[in-house]
Specification:
- The chain is of the alpha+beta class.
- The protein contains 4 helices and 8 strands, in the order αβααβββββββα.
- It has helices at residues 9-23, 32-58, 63-84, 149-159; strands spanning 26-30, 90-94, 97-101, 106-110, 114-118, 130-134, 138-142, 146-147.
- The strands form 2 sheets. It has a 5-stranded antiparallel β-sheet. A 3-stranded antiparallel β-sheet has the order 5-6-7, with no helix packed on it.
- α2 runs antiparallel to α3.
- It is elongated and about 70 Å long.
């Protein structure tokens, strides 16, 4: 180990990273702010839609428009909920396997089967899910705001040197 590792802050980070890669599970998880953002969007859509439906029941005029708009808000919230259940919120690398944690299930893929990790097309704001291309399970979508993604990618690159990570 270089002499500067004991005195420099980067050395401590390097030692922590080496311990995580060699001895433990390396993981990255969705940030709490991103989870709150998603929950707030779903709650606003569902709550706003229900409010419009209740107001439509008591409205003297324009009830049909309120019903249509409220139904559209509820449908959009339902679509967001359906989509959020199919996006992984955590990635773990444990003993040569990549584990994708979804809200209701886990998917295990050998690290050698991961071909690439990339952004979605036309994702200029970096809000769309990351795409993990695998040879055995197809495309797996992962939340874009991950804490510890760099450490995970470093460990994945050591487990599978052929993985492509273009422009994250």
């Amino acid at each position: 180990m270089p002499a500067w590792c004991g005195t420099h802050a980067a050395g401590a980070a390097l030692r922590r990273l080496r311990r995580r890669i060699l001895g433990r599970v390396v993981s990255c998880t969705t940030s709490p702010a991103w989870r709150w953002y998603q929950r707030a969007g779903l709650g606003l859509g569902l709550g706003g839609g229900l409010l419009l439906l209740v107001v439509a029941a008591f409205a003297r005029s324009g009830a049909v428009a309120l019903l249509v708009i409220g139904g559209a808000w509820i449908a959009a919230a339902g679509g967001g909920l359906w989509f959020s259940l199919r996006v992984a919120y955590e990635l773990r690398l444990d003993e040569g396997q990549v584990i994708f944690a979804f809200p209701r299930r886990e998917l295990r893929v050998p690290a050698g089967d991961v071909l690439a990790i990339q952004r979605s097309r036309l994702d200029m704001s970096r809000m769309r899910p990351l795409l993990v291309l695998t040879s055995s399970s197809g495309v797996v979508r992962v939340n874009p705001r991950l804490i510890g993604l760099f450490d995970f990618l470093l460990a994945l690159r050591q487990a599978n040197p052929d993985v492509a990570v273009p422009d994250l």
